[in-house]
Predict the structure.
Amino acid sequence: MEQVYLNGEYKPLNEACVPVLDRGFLFGDGVYEVIPVYSGKPFRVEQHLDRLQHSLDAIRLRNPMTREQWIEVIDELIRRNTGDADAALYLQITRGVMEKRDHGFNDSLEPTVLLTCQPMNYPLQQSDTPGGCAITLEDSRWQDCHIKSINLLPNVLLRQQAVDAGADEAILIRDGRAIEGSASNLFIVKDEVIKTPPRQRCMLGGITRDLILELCNENHLLAREIDISEDELHDADEIWMTSSTREILPITTLNQHKVGKGLTGPVWAEVIRLYQDYKQQVMRGGDE
Ligand SMILES: Cc1ncc(COP(=O)(O)O)c(C=O)c1O
């Protein structure tokens, strides 16, 4: 039975319960993180814990644990569940349990902390990965998508529209600009230049995105953080969607039309190789 960590205790998943007046359940009042685990090692854990702090600060929720405590619990939960295998680790922090229902909050509540560690359920991307499909949709989310909020209803509905259309992801359009996916960041390639939207309030600053930019920089691939118009998206030679669980997913069909030649592109092949090499180096104990 999978073990979870809930408010200071490790316990079997089927014994882990949260009270019905938890603000996460009633209001979606909380934040989360997803950390990929490769060969038993949490990947880019410092960057994920930095982003968690950013989300907590943005919703005015105090961090219930020190950095050392987070790392200790993460390592212990991996040890108890997936060991040396690959996994996806989820951290959920809500504002805690109210005595009576009220939208307003004060600092007296004890945050609820839940960590789970499950086997990775997406195949990792390799050079022979078949491309995926995407559709474009208007971004119906709120302005503050830089916060990794547990309030995911718009993302859920947008992703389901993509699923219903037989697609793997929805690319979200706001004011004529392509921002990101329903659960991923966006890259395009045009004339060998890699482009991704700049960090902004209405987009989540992805950890995978940042690593790709670092790898491009170190390997002298031309990558720009720049707005991408809807027209540029449709005219791209390559499109990629990036996230901790799906890595760098090449999109070869957009709105039922081929992207470029309709095959995974040469720039993607180069970048996924750099990404997988980097992971190997980290898993062998090299520096992140
Ligand atoms: C809306 C959104 N954008 C981007 C990402 C990618 O972020 P990361 O690379 O840190 O997984 C995610 C991941 O879940 C997401 O939900």
